[in-house]
Amino acid sequence: MIRLLTKIPENIYLGLSGGVDSVACHTFFSNSRRTIIPVFFDHGTETSKKALGFLRSRYSNLLVGKIQREKGKKESWEEYWRNERYNYLYNLNGPVVVCHHLDDVVETWLFSSFHGTPKLIPVQTRNIVRPFLITDKDRLKEICIKWNKEWIEDESNFDDSYMRNHIRHNILPEILKVNPGIKKTLKKKYLEKSNQYLNHF
User: Fold this and answer.
1) Residue 159: which domain range?
2) pLDDT tens-digit map of 99-117
3) Fewer Cβ within 10 Å of end Cβ, the chain: N or C?
4) pTM here?
């Protein structure tokens, strides 16, 4: 059983990447009586091109956003892509569900802690909603397997030159040896505030 952190409206945009988490979320909501418009943001990379082809072959009503400006000199590539992606999503006329999960929460908390300001991923930012923040990625993968859904792996996720990937592949496994309950601890922080999340829409 999956517990959502907030109520989800009947009509939503749903962010898709082609990865296991987003495919699982689409499968999850497709089994409800909601109207779903799948959304993909094209970062202009070869990886994005591959993902776009995969998604267009499976979702006929896919909405696609694109980069609108050049990268700033002081922006990292990760910041640039994230800023452009969110700027596009913020301008969609309705709630946008994205599929961040508990594993993302732990990585973000560690990443921000290393910079001196530990942060949790917010359940909602403007029109963007993240209802799966207390759900393990493995649970989402189980949904895809159960419903025989295909997904693709983003090759850039294995590039440890990106800090988030370095945390995921090298640091987090060591953290779990020292504190195997870190997921449970961060999950509890969301559950303590769960009542306030139910009033957003």
Assistant:
1) 11-197
2) 999 999 999 998 899 889 9
3) N
4) 0.88
